[in-house]
UniProtKB/TrEMBL annotation:
The name this protein goes by in its record: Flavin reductase
Record-annotated HTH gntR-type domain positions: 155-222
PROSITE patterns linked to this entry: HTH_GNTR
Top-rank taxon, per record: Bacteria
InterPro entries: Flavin_Rdtase-like_dom, GntR_C, NADH-dep_flavin_reductase, Split_barrel_FMN-bd, TF_FadR/GntR_C, Tscrpt_reg_HTH_GntR, WH-like_DNA-bd_sf, WH_DNA-bd_sf
Family: Belongs to the non-flavoprotein flavin reductase family.
Keywords: DNA-binding, Oxidoreductase, Transcription, Transcription regulation
């Protein structure tokens, strides 16, 4: 099992976010961990998996004790602080001693103190089986970790907030490289800061905003280099896929390719988009299906992480005007696959990639160099 593919798949398992703390003498240790769960109710036991390369794992082994600090939904920054290497992870954090004398994060949603009953080594991690000695909990909602991002359980509401925040960014309500303060976004959307923070983490994973150590969240500018690299990456993947699938596709698969192509082409009439977002979804569905024909989950996952839809939305979505040349280039690609003609399919892929890059260059130039 490829490690990158495994991480992608297991990222679909939502989990709570905790900070594991302990001490050895006068030195305090802490690290963010999501592989933590209750193990037994009788006797009460907790299981925590810690990476052996992190000092906290060694400290837990030495002290024989650890505390599980369950984070609340507004404590994403605290999770990041304890996840980042630092000589003082506890800076600016309110702490109080627990029943076992362990440093507990005062503002955490819940605290569970454990004594290590058993240790098991598994790959790069040590699994600590802890006998619970004390446990307290307050009110609030937990912070969760899902597909590489931090969020909350209120997914339906938060997805709607994220959608509105994304539309603000894509419609250029904020300028490229402009700071996007959490408080400003929450006020603009009419939601609490926890929901706005969830939206920011999603926008960050979409590469629409980036985290700057000094400025906070910043609108990620789309420039020619970013656009070219994204389209070139898609092009490289598709050229490799074509080498694999030419001659191996079934008639049914070719029929499905043509069906998806026709659905996309219908949304571009003359030199204008009939429905840009519909076209974008149909375009992505066509190319995603093409990549999936290689039957390689890692290729499909890599394709999905390119952020191609974001680049196209931020560039092509600026104007309803386009060109039928894009449709014709993709028709040449599909016709080449259908004819089992590798060179013809490759020519169509090259043509489409170059057209896309050139069109984005024109749009970015008209906007002053970045959008």
């Amino acid at each position: 099992m490829d490690a990158a593919h495994f991480r992608h798949v297991v990222g679909h398992l939502a989990s709570g976010v905790t900070v594991i703390t302990t001490d050895t003498g006068d030195i305090r240790y802490g690290m963010t961990a999501s592989s933590v769960t209750s193990l037994s109710a009788d006797p009460p036991m907790m299981l925590a998996c810690l990476n052996n390369s992190v000092p906290t794992a060694g400290a837990v082994t030495s002290s024989g004790r650890y505390a599980v600090n369950v984070l609340g939904d507004g404590q994403g920054e605290l999770a990041r602080q304890f996840a980042s290497p630092s000589t003082d992870k506890f800076r600016g954090v309110a702490v109080h001693p627990g029943t076992l004398g362990l440093p507990l994060l005062s503002d955490a949603l819940a605290h569970i103190e454990c004594e290590v009953a058993e240790r098991v080594t598994g790959g790069t991690h040590t699994i600590f089986l802890g006998r619970v000695r004390s446990a307290t909990a307050g009110n609030g909602q937990p912070l969760t970790y899902f597909r590489g991002g931090l969020g909350r359980f209120a997914f339906a509401r938060d997805d709607e907030v994220y959608g509105r925040a994304r539309e603000l960014v894509l419609s250029r309500a904020y300028a490229a490289d402009e700071t996007l303060p959490l408080e400003d976004l929450a006020e603009r959307l009419g939601v609490d800061q926890a929901a706005a923070f969830y939206a920011l983490t999603r926008l960050s994973s979409d590469a629409l905003v980036r985290r700057d150590a000094d400025r906070g969240y910043v609108i990620a500018p789309l420039d020619v280099r970013t656009s070219d690299e994204t389209f070139d990456a898609r092009h490289a993947i598709e050229l490799g896929v074509l080498s694999i699938i030419i001659g191996a596709t079934t008639d049914d698969e070719i029929a499905e390719l043509r069906r998806r192509f026709d659905a996309m082409a219908a949304l571009l009439v003359g030199e204008r988009f009939v429905d840009f977002h519909g076209y974008l979804d149909a375009n992505y569905a066509l190319h995603e299906y093409l990549v999936s024909l290689a039957r390689n989950p890692l290729l499909t996952a890599t394709f999905g992480r390119l952020g191609i839809k974001n680049v196209m939305t931020r560039s092509f979505g600026v104007t309803p005007e386009t060109s039928q040349k894009f449709v014709e280039a993709q028709r040449h690609l599909i016709d080449g696959v259908a004819a089992r003609d590798l060179e013809a399919a490759r020519r169509g892929a090259v043509e489409y990639c170059e057209l896309a890059k050139q069109r984005v260059r024109e749009i970015i130039a008209a906007a002053g160099g970045s959008i």
